[in-house]
Design a protein that fits this description.
The protein has 335 residues and is α/β, with parallel strands linked by helices. The protein is built from 13 helices and nine strands. The structure holds S-adenosylmethionine and iron/sulfur cluster. The site of iron/sulfur cluster has 9 residues, from loops.
């Protein structure tokens, strides 16, 4: 058991013992996951969104985004390409786009699961509890639903009036259904001070999640937070390292947001407790329109190169790109 108290967490968050913190986090990651880094191929199949999150470029009021929706055939082709390149997890992600019906998503899951030996992760936002139950029956393995910030007042403000408790309830319901569930926060949203960051860490840990993401906030020019500072890279590293110590079994990505700010800091994340990379496998013609924040998805990358670049990054660090589905290591059981 890795005991650590609130005072230790604050000391680490302040960066007083960086070297010790990062070494401790890496040791725990190696104990649970060895040198393997799990890969998740993300297919960002629609950038249409009903919501108004203040931080995100896909928010409904942003009239400058070129919107797209991929067809079922295009999504299945992208999934087939990703698996042929060696991906063992497909993440289906989109804006909160309710034009895809429960059955549309269900049949996508069924077709991907019956054609390929992969895990399927859903990152579709605030869909209904009954829909998530149906998709679990269709074979979906995991869900990602980030809390973004665990202070209910800030949550309401930054998510355009949405209710924190219903998001939290959804996360708990997904766990109850038997999904592997991921959540997390955006690091460095405006007015998030060190104490609220400490609370985020404790709150997220309390949820006993299978996956935890904590990537830096990156301001998008067509949002209400356009003029704000981006989240601190060092603080993001400290946060993921602390989350690793407190949640040894969880999958923790070196986020794409880190990579968008500075590719070296994404690499460093893999040496400081993170064990997952999530390359985008969205087709070239759409990838640069998935503009959550500036720098997300370089448009000049051929998607078959996307996974290869991620594998090369891992190998260059002396780590091993894993070909496994990469479930969390709750019981310290290797697949
Ligand atoms: N619409 C779904 C949802 O919100 O859960 C899934 C897609 S959403 C684009 C995926 C994630 O992008 C969000 O959970 C949020 O953490 C992240 N995100 C959005 N805008 C961001 C920004 N400006 N900086 C960092 N992360 C951001
Ligand atoms: Fe929509 Fe998700 Fe972006 Fe919020 S974070 S605006 S729900 S895509």
């Amino acid at each position: 058991m890795h005991t650590i108290n609130e005072q230790d967490i604050l000391t680490y968050l302040l960066g007083v013992n960086d070297a010790e913190l990062f070494e401790r986090a890496n040791d725990i990651k190696v104990q649970r996951f060895g040198d393997e880094i799990f890969l998740r191929a993300i297919i960002e199949f629609s950038n249409v969104c009903d919501k108004k999150c203040h931080y995100c470029g896909l928010r409904a009021p942003n009239g400058k985004t070129e919107r797209y929706r991929m067809t079922k055939e295009d999504i299945l082709d992208a999934a087939a390409l990703a698996t042929s390149e060696g991906a063992a997890t497909i993440v289906l992600q989109s804006g909160d786009d309710f034009s895809y019906s429960t059955e549309d998503i269900g049949s996508l899951i069924q077709e991907i699961k019956s054609s390929h030996d992969v895990a399927v992760t859903l990152s579709l936002g605030d869909r209904g509890l009954d829909e998530y139950a149906y998709w679990h029956d269709c074979g979906a393995d995991r869900c990602l639903l980030k809390l973004e910030v665990t202070n209910p007042r800030l949550y309401k403000r930054f998510r355009g009036g949405e209710d924190f408790s219903s998001r939290l309830h959804k996360i708990k319901f997904l766990q109850h259904l038997g999904y592997e569930v991921g959540s997390g926060v955006i690091v460095g949203l405006p007015d998030a001070d060190l104490i609220s960051t400490l609370r985020d860490i404790l709150f997220i840990t309390d949820l006993d999640l299978d996956m935890i993401a904590a990537g830096p906030f990156i301001p998008h020019p067509q949002t209400p937070l356009a003029d704000m500072e981006h989240g601190c890279i060092d603080l993001s590293h400290r946060m993921t390292a602390l989350l690793r110590i407190l949640n040894p079994h969880a999958n923790i990505p070196a986020t794409s947001a880190l990579g968008a700010l500075d590719s070296d800091s994404q690499k460093l994340g893999l040496l400081r407790g993170c064990n997952v990379l999530m390359p985008s496998m969205t087709p070239e013609r759409h990838r640069s329109d998935y503009t959550i924040y500036p720098g997300k998805n370089a448009s000049n990358i051929d998607i078959t190169d996307s996974l290869k670049l991620a594998k090369d990054m891992i190998s260059a660090l002396g780590l091993v790109p894993s070909s496994s589905k990469g479930f969390s290591r709750r019981n310290n059981v290797h697949e």
